[in-house]
Amino acid sequence: MTLAHEAITWYDANARDLPWRQPDSTPWGVLVSEVMLQQTPVVRVEPAWRSWMTRWPEPAALAEDPPSEAIRMWGRLGYPRRAMRLHACAVAIVERHGGRVPSDLDELLALPGVGTYTGRAVATFAYGQRHPVVDTNVRRVVCRAVEGKPDAGPATTTADLVAMEALLPPDAPTAARASIAFMELGAIVCTARSPKCVDCPFHDVCAWRLTGLPLPEGPSRKPQRYAGTDRQVRGLLLEVLRHTSGPVPRQRLDMVWQDEVQRARALAGLVEDGLIETLGADDFVLAGDAPQGEIQTL
């Protein structure tokens, strides 16, 4: 039995019951889940995804609202530019594809904010096509099982796509099933720090295990610090704006963070990223909430 079929057999018995994997899930639901899951764990994404899909079950529903509403609904998921990209994506889907998420990979990749991974993930998981879908989890599984290395590099390369495609069965439906199986295996069994090798379907053939589980060379990557960073300050500033319907004066935002230089830098970054807009010299609103003609720059 090939690695792909071993992975599928394991997946059928062990896959997590996630809403975007249900038979009635739509391509739009898959796209939303893939954007939300970038750098955010499933346990935080699932309730946010359900709320988002209840409010905006189709791209057209989101496209009708201003981007500020997408930012508000994003809540504390982190990396809120993803909300802006999803809104821009919804608008493009309506304008270019009549409100239907395209199935063609090139058309998916042409959507705002849809990159190599997301485009292939939607084409594969929503439409059952045969594409190499490679994220951190998949790269780790392939690197260990096939190459015998403890971990893959920091970013997906063309070589990773080629390596994954070589493992896929020739027929599209089975290949699509294999893709999600490899990903799930990396997420819950072949994890970065505490792999459960005894539970792995590749236990008897994994090149990494058969070479004695060598440790990675060089220093291990440390988790990114959050407390005290500009990311934290940006989040605090956005939190105020998300819970306010009208303009927020600068004096109110000054109360969020004591360090004036860092606060000003974070505020300027939010404006530059298009997440907030300025009204006059000292008032701010979420993107899309400003009356026409009143937007200014810092």
Automatic annotation (TrEMBL):
Annotated PROSITE patterns: ENDONUCLEASE_III_1, ENDONUCLEASE_III_2
Keyword vocabulary terms for this entry: 4Fe-4S, DNA damage, DNA repair, Glycosidase, Hydrolase, Iron, Iron-sulfur, Metal-binding
Domain HhH-GPD: 36-188
A Pfam family assignment: HhH-GPD
EC annotation from Swiss-Prot or TrEMBL: 3.2.2.31
Stretches assigned to coiled coil: none
PANTHER family recorded: ADENINE DNA GLYCOSYLASE (PTHR42944)
Family affiliation: Belongs to the Nth/MutY family.
Name of this chain's protein: Adenine DNA glycosylase
Organism: Actinoplanes couchii
